Write the structure tokens for this entry.
Amino acid sequence: FQAEDGIRDVRTWLEFRRVLFRSRNADWNDTGNPIWIDWIGWQDSKTSDPTVTFEFSSLRKFSSIRFHVLNLPSHHEKMLFSKVVLSFSRDGEYFAWKTIYEPSMAKRSTLRNKAVWIEVNLDGNIGKHVTCEFVYYGWWVLISEVEFKSGTFLV
């Protein structure tokens, strides 16, 4: 997946769906919503390690990433992920820097039964490749959009 250069790299749900269908471990789940509300998801019984890697066209300095996620504990354990580990690489083979985000129980309570944006500070990590490894909290991890805030990194 090649991202466009720019101050702000925004991925729509359609672009994200294309990325995930090409990923080795994505399952599809539309949650019965109208056609304009689609979710990409992984189910724990089918995929043990939900992971997606984004490849950008040049080195980037990342400020943050936002995930639009579904948190519906009463609907077959469609819950906000337990944590996400973000890794950064300049060459796509060696991933050095990691950022780990774990939503607190208090945050989970306030986000109950809704679709929400989760923002993760990336502390200026640098890379051309970003891998997101999700850990389940319920039976599903469901995401509709991903947004990066980044800038070009000049060597």
About this structure: The chain has a mean pLDDT of 75. The two ends are 23 Å apart (CA to CA). The chain has two helices and nine strands. The first helix runs from residue 13 to 22.
